[in-house]
Amino acid sequence: MAIRRCRALALWLILALTCVCPNLAAADNHKPAVAQSGVGTSNTHVEVESFTLDNGLTVWVSENHELPQIFGAVVVRAGAKHDPAHATGIAHYLEHMLFKGTQELGTADWGYEAPRLEHIRQLYETLGQTEDPKTRASLLKQIDAVSQAAGRVAIPNEFDRLLQEIGSTGVNAFTTPDITVYHNAFPASRLPQWLELYAHRFEQPVFRLFQSELEAVYEEKNRSMDGFEPLVDVFLGQFFRRHPYRLQGSVLGRVEHLKNPSLGEMQKFYDTYYVANNMGLMLAGDISVDEVKPLVKQAFGDWRSGTVPEFPDYPEPTFRGREQVTVRMTPVRVAGMGFRTVPEGHPDYAALLVCNRLLTNPQQSGFLDNLARDGGVLLTQAVPIPLHDHGIQLVAFAPRIVFQSFASAERRVRAQFERLKRGDFDDATLRGVRRSLVNEYRLKFESNNGRVVAMADVFGRGASWASFNEFLDELATIDRAAVQRVAARYFGDNYLMIHSRAGHARQKKLDKPGFRPIKPSKAESSNYAERVRKLPTRTVKPRFIDPSSDITRVEVRPGVTLLHHPNPMNDVYTLELVWGIGQYDLRELSLLDDYLADVGSAALGAKKFKHELFALATTLVFETREEEFIARLTGPEANLAAAVELVGGLMRKPELSRKALRAIRQERRGYGFVNRRQSATVADALREYVTFGDKSKYVREYSPTEMLRISPKQLASAWQAAQGYALKVRYTGQTTPTQVAALISQKLDLRASYKPATPMVVRPRTHPQRDTVYFVRHPRSIQSQIIVTVGGDPVTAPQRPALHAFNEYFGGSMAGILFQEVRELRSLAYSTRAMYIEHPVAGQPGMMYMHIGTQGDKTIEAIGVLRDLLDHMPRKPGRLPGLRSALVESQLAATPGFRSVLQTVDDWRWLGYNSDPRREWLAHYPGLSFTELEAFYRQQIADRPRSILVVGDPKRVKKRELRRYGDVVTVPRHRLGL
Question: E strands within 744-864?
Answer without folding.
Answer: 772-777, 783-794, 832-837, 845-855
